[in-house]
Amino acid sequence: MAADTVSPEIPGTDRLEEPPFSRSALWITWLLGAATLAAVIAMALHLSDVESFMTLFMNAQPLWLIAAVLAQSLTYVAQGQIFRTVLAQGGQALTRWPAIRLSLVKLFVDQALPSSGISGAFAVVAFFIRLGLPRPVVLACLALDLAGYFLAYVASVGVAVLILMVQGHASAPLVAACLAFICVGLILALSGPRLAGNRSLARRIPGQRFALVSKALALLTGADVRLARSRLLLLRVTLLELAIIVLDSATLWLLVLALGVSAPALGLFAGFMVASVVRSVGIMPGGLGAFEGVLVVTLHWAGVDLAVALSATLLFRGLTFWLPMVPGLWMARREWLHDASPTRTQPQADYWSGPIEQLFIDCNSAPSGLSDEQARARRQPSNHPFKQRPQGFMSLALKQLMTPLVLILMTGAIIALVIGDWLDAAIVWCIVALSAVLSAWYENRASTAVEQLRNKVAARATVVRDGKSRDVPASEVVPGDVMLLSAGSLIAADGRIIEATDCFVSESLLTGETFPVEKMPGQSAPDSSLVDRRNCVFMGTSVRSGTARLLVTRHAEDSEMGAIAHALSSRPPETEFERGLRHFGGLLLRIMLVITIVVMGTNILLQRPPLDTLLFAIALSIGMSPELLPAILSITLAKGAQRMAAKGVIVRHLNSIENLGSMDVLCTDKTGTLTRALVVLDRAVDVWGVADAHVLLLATLNATLQTGMRNAIDDAIALAGKDVDVWPGIVKRDEIPYDFVRKRLSIIVGNVPHTGCLMITKGAVETVLQVCTHAQFRGQTCALGAAELAAIGERFAQWSEQGYRVLGIASRAMPEQPHYGKQDETGLTFLGFLLFFDPPEPEINDTLTALERLGVQVKIISGDSHLVTRHVAQAVGLPDLQMLTGAQLMQMKDEALMRLAPTTTLFAEVDPNQKERIIRALQKTGHVVGYLGDGINDAPALQTADIGISVDHAADVAKQAADFVLLEHDLNIVREGIEEGRHTFANTLKYLSIVSSANFGNMVSMALASLVLPFLPLLAKQILLNNFLADIPSMSIASDNVDREWERTPHRWNMIDIRNFMVVFGLVSSVFDMATFGVLYLMVGVAPELFRSGWFVESLLTQLLTIFIVRTYKPFYRSRPARLLLVSAVTIAAATVALPYSVVGQWFGLIPLPAQLLLAVWAVSLFYAAAAELTKRVFYHRSVAALTLTSGHTSSSGA
Predict the structure, then answer these.
(1) Known catalytic residue: 669?
(2) DSSP 8-state code for residue 380
(3) Where exactly does CATH 1.20.1110.10 map onto the chain?
(4) Rounded distance between C-alpha atoms, residue 214 and residue 1040, angstroms
(5) What stretch(es) of the chain map to CATH 3.40.1110.10?
(6) Which residue has the higher pLDDT, 282 or 474?
(7) What pLDDT is recorded for position 8?
(8) Alpha carbon distance 1025, 1193 (integer Å)
(9) Which regions of the chain carry the CATH code 3.40.50.1000?
(10) SS3 685
(11) pLDDT band at 329 (very low <50, low <70, confident <90, very high)
C-alpha cells in the first residue's frame, strides 16, 4: 500500500537491508581491535602481580556472578520492551520472545559493526519491514529508539562528568571529549523526531561522508509523524534506555564484588560511561580494545586494583560481548540476512488474472467448496509474531514488571541482596510481585469476561462446506473456501468472484472510493491495480447490494486489507477518555521525574548512603505512579460491560463505555426504535386507493423471489400474500437488486399468462414513478401526465400524513433475454400502492422523557418520507422544533448545517452520506453524538459517531462498525446503558482523583522531609508497603455506589480540573504531613525508627480517609459507599494501627507507638479529614455550582 512505501528519491532507502560496511573494512577493524585488546592485557599484566589474579579467582563469590548474569539478562528484556512499546502505539503487536530475540540481534550487529548503535537499529528495521509492518510505524520505531538511546547516553555521560569532577579525575581533554559527545548526541537525538514527515530535508542530507548517519536520517523522514514526535513515548523509551545503562553498570559493579573487592558505585558508574563513549565513537567493532583500556584506567581511578579492574573488565566483556555473539550471529543470519518470515503463507501470484478453473486447482478446492476436514487442516494457528493473542495470567504479570522504574527497583533489590541485606531485598521483591500478581489477576478476569461477551456478536460468514451452505465465524474462513455474499455482508477474506448478480461492493475503507463498485466474474490484467480488479473482493469491505459467490484466496495478515482490518477490529480509534488518560499519565510522569531527580541529587550531596538514596527515590516515584491503574480500569470497565450485558447491551469496544456516559445527542432511525418494528402490510391498493388483489400478487412475487438482504418490508408482504394464488409454472428469470441510489428492486419472472416475461418493480413511490411512463386507472392504462402525477402525489401525501409508509408497485412486459440490468428499468406502468403501518412502542414516551432527564436529546434521522417522519415524531411526543430534508441538505453548506443541526429534531429523506454529514456537524458544535442503526446504509454513520449502537439482528457491516450491540431493539436499553456508562466513568475518575491527590501529597511531603531531616523519612520498603496497602481498598472502587445527581447529566473528561484537584488536595495533605513531622519531632526527637512508624500510620490513615471524602461531591456522611469499599478500608485501617506492634511490622522497620503518640496521630488524621472536607466544598463552590454538576468539574472528583 502507498502508506507503506518511501519515495526512492530519498537517499538511503533503496538499499536498506544491505550491511553498511564492506567485509574487508570489517576485518581490518576487528584485527585492529584484537591487537589493541592484546596490548591492554599485556600492559595490565606487566603492571600487576600474576599471583594477585590467582588470589582473586580463588576468592570469587558465585552468588554475585549469578546476580550479574541476571542483571545483564534484564537488559535484553528492556530493549525488547522498547520495540513492543513503540509498535503498540502504532497499532501493531509484538510478543515478548521475538522482542528479546531481536534485542540479541541488535546487540550483535551493534558490536560487530562500529556504528554507535545505528547498525543494530537497521537490522531491526529490516526485520520489521520483511514482516510486512507499515513502514512509517517501523521508521518511527527507529527514530524513537535512536533518540532515546542518545538522550539516555547524554544524561548518563553528564552525570559521569560531574562525578569525575567531584572526585578530581576530570582532566580537560576528557571533559572536552565528553562535552563534544553530549553535543553531538543531543543533535542526533533531537533531529531524529523532527525529521519525521519532513521529506524536503532528505535531499539536503549529504550522502557521501558519514554515509550511515546520512542513511539513518534520510530514512527518518518517512516515519509516522504522530508516533515519532510523541514526547510521552520518547520519554518512555528514554527511561527504558536509562534502565539498560543502569543494568549494564550494575552488572560491572556486581562482577567487581564477585571478585571479592568493594568498589564505590558512583566512581564505577562514571568509569563505565567514559568507556562507553569511547566504545560508541571508536572505529573498532564494539570498541574492542579501546573500551577495555579506558575502563581499566577509570576503574583504577576509582580505587580498584589493576588486577581487579582487568579481571572485572574481561568478565564484563565476556558476559556482554563475547557470550551473546554466538546466539546473536545465528539469529542475525536467520532474521536479517535471510527471510524473516519463512512460515508466512504466500498467496497465489496474480490470482485475479488467470482462469478461474486453474485457481481452483491452485487452491486445492472445487465449486462445491471444501470439506470440513480440509477446512480444519487449513485453520492451523499462525506463528506470525505480530498476530494478536489473548494475554494469559503470566504474560499480564510480566507486563506489570516490565516498566523502567520496576526494573531499576528490582536491580536495587539485587544489589541489596548481594551486600547481605537479604530481608530488605526479599521485602521489595515480595511487594512488587504481589502488586503484579494482584493486578494481573484482576485484569485477566476482566479481559476474559469481556472477550466472552464480545464473541456473542462476532462477525460471521456463509461458506459452502461439503456441498452445503453453512454459517461460520468469520475467523474460520480459510483459503479455498467458497463464500456466499448478499447485501449487508461484511467480506471476511480476499477472493475471486465466481458468479455475481448486480453485486455492488463498498471499498471506501480500502481505496477511498466513495461510490460502490460493481463486481462480476472474469479476468483482470496481471498489472491491474486494486481499483481495477472488478473480479475480486477484499477483506473488510462490504456488499451494498446484490449477491455473489467467490473463491477465497487470501485471509488474515495475507489479505490486502489485513493490517487495516486488524487495526479496526482490535484497536479502535483513540477515544476522548484514552486521550485523557494518556495526558494524565504524562503529567504524573513529569512531576515524578522532577521531584525524584531533585530528591536523589540533594540526598547525594548530603552524603546519605547511595543505595538507600537510590531505593528511596525509586520507591518515591513508584508511590507517585498509579501502578494499579490498568487493573482498576480493566475491572471497572469489565464490570460495567457485564452489567450492561445483563441489561441486553454487548460492549464491543470497552473504552467506549465512557463515551456512552458522555453522550448528549442520540440520533436514531424511527423503525424499531420509536416504533415496534412490527411492520404490517395494511393494504395493497390501486392508484385510486381501492384494494387490489393483482397489486398484492405482484408485490408478493417481488418480495418472495428477491435474493438480496431480507428485511421487514418483504417479510410483511410475504405474510400478507401467503394465501395469494400464484400463476402456475412461474419462474424467476433475473433480479435487479435494491440499492440506496435507485431505492427500488426489480424481479423478472417468466411463464406469466398472456405476457411471457414480466418485470415487477417495487420501491419508493417517487423513484418508481421516475421509470414509469404510464399508470393504470381502474383497469385502463393511460399516459402519465401532470394531472395523473398530481393525483398520485395527493394520495401519497394523505397516507403519509396518517403515518403509513407507502411504496409503489409497477410492471412491464419484457422480451426474453439472458440478462437484465438497471438500463431495462424504463417504460413501466404504475399499478398502485403498498401501505405499511408500524405502531409506536407503547412505553416510548416514558423512555424519551427519561432520556431528556439524563440530558440526552433524541433526533430522528430517517430515509423515509418527511410526512411519515413528522407523524411518528408527533405520535411519540418528540418536540417538532425543526425539520430538514435530504433535498435541503444537498443545497446546504457545512457551515449552515452546523448552525441548524443542534436545533433540528427531524432529518427526513436522507441518504447514507448525509447521515454522516449530520453527525459530523453535531460533533463540530461540541456534542458527543451517538447513532443507533441496523442497516447497511447506517455503517458510515455508525463509524463516524462517537458512540455507534447497533442491534444483534443487524447487517454484519453495521454490527462491526458499532461500539455497542443491543440484543433487543429497544430504546429503553440504550437509556440503561447510558446510566451504566456514567456509573462506570464516575468510578474510574474516582480512582484517578483519589490516587493522584493522595500520592502527590505524599510524594511532596517525603521529598521535603528528606531535605530537612537528618535521616530518610521512610525506607523504600515502607513506602512500597504503604502504597500496596492503600491500593487494596481502591480495587473495590469498581463496584462503588455513584450519586444519583451525578448520573443525571453527561460528563466529559476535564484534564485541567483533574490537575487542579490533584494539586489542591495534595498540598492540603502535605500541610498536615508537615504538621505530623512537627508533632513527631517534638514528641520523639531524633529517633528514626519511631518517627517512621508514626508517619507510616498517619500517612496511610489519611489516604484511607481521602477515599471517602473524594468519592462524592457531597458531604461524605451523606453519600453511602459500597459495602465492600467500606469493609476493606476499615480492615486496612485496623491493620495499619496494629502493624507496628507485630512481627511483620518489625520486618519493615516499624516499632510500637506509645499511646500518646498514637492518639496524636489519630488527632492529626481527623483534623485532616475536616480540612479536606472543607477544601472540597470550597473547590466545588468555586468551580461550579453544586446543583448544576457540569461534567468537567464534577468528574474531577469522580462523584
Answers:
(1) yes
(2) P
(3) 977-1197
(4) 57
(5) 680-837
(6) 474
(7) 34
(8) 32
(9) 649-675+841-967
(10) strand
(11) low
Distance from C-alpha of 1138 to C-alpha of 1152, rounded to nearest angstrom: 9
DSSP reduced 3-state for 251: helix
CATH number for the region 356-570 comes to 2.70.150.10
The three cell numbers locating residue 46: 606487566
CATH 2.70.150.10 domain locations along the chain = 356-570
Highest mean pLDDT among 183-197, 597-611, 881-895: 881-895
For the domain made up of 977-1197, give the CATH fold. Calcium-transporting ATPase, transmembrane domain (1.20.1110)
Pick 381 or 473 by higher pLDDT: 473
Given this model, what pLDDT does residue 385 score?
34
- CA–CA separation, 721 and 698 (whole Å): 10
> What does the longest C-alpha to C-alpha distance in the chain come to?
124
Residue 432: φ, ψ to 5°: -60, -45
Lowest-pLDDT range, 825-829, 1007-1011, 1121-1125? 1007-1011
Q: In terms of C-beta density within 10 A (0-12 exposed, 13-18 middle, 19 or more buried), how is residue 916 classed?
A: buried
Angstrom distance (rounded) from CA 288 to CA 32? 8
Q: Which CATH fold topology does 680-837 show?
A: Calcium-transporting ATPase, cytoplasmic domain N (3.40.1110)
Backbone dihedral region of 756: left (phi > 0), alpha (psi from -120 to 50 degrees) or beta? left
Q: Are 807 and 765 in contact (CB under 8 A)?
A: yes
- Residue 330's identity, in one-letter code, is W
Interacting residues of 1116 by C-beta distance below 8 A, sequence separation 6+: 1108, 1109, 1173
* Set of cell numbers at residue 171: 582532566
Q: Which of 110, 502, 664, 669 is catalytic?
A: 669
CATH class of 649-675+841-967: alpha beta
Q: Return the H-helix or E-strand segment holding 198.
A: none
DSSP tag of 55: H
- Residue 288 CA to residue 285 CA, distance in Å, equals 6
Q: At what angle do helices 1155-1183 and 1055-1084 cross, to 10 degrees?
A: 160
Burial 250-260 (b: 16+ CB within 10 A, else e): bbbbbbbbbbe
Which residue in this structure is represented by grid cell 530514512? 219
pLDDT of residue 383: 34
- The model's pTM: 0.58
Degrees, nearest 5: CA angle 770-774-776: 120
Half-sphere exposure of 710 (CA within 13 A, CB side): 5
- Tell me how far apart the alpha carbons of residues 461 and 490 are, in angstroms, rounded to a whole number: 8
Whether the CB-CB separation of 761 and 832 falls below 8 Å is answered with no
Cβ contacts of 879 within 8 Å, gap of 6 or more: 905
At 193, list the grid cell: 523526531
Count of helix runs (H) and strand runs (E) in the chain = 45, 23
Nearest to 288 by CA among 70, 73, 29, 523: 29
Q: What is the pLDDT of residues 308-318, one digit of tens each?
A: 777 777 777 76
Q: What are the contacts of 155-158 at 24+ separation with CB within 8 A?
A: 155/238, 155/242, 156/242, 156/245, 156/273, 156/276, 157/181, 157/182, 157/185, 157/273, 157/274, 157/276, 157/277, 158/182
Q: Is 1066 within 8 Å of 473 (Cβ atoms)?
A: no
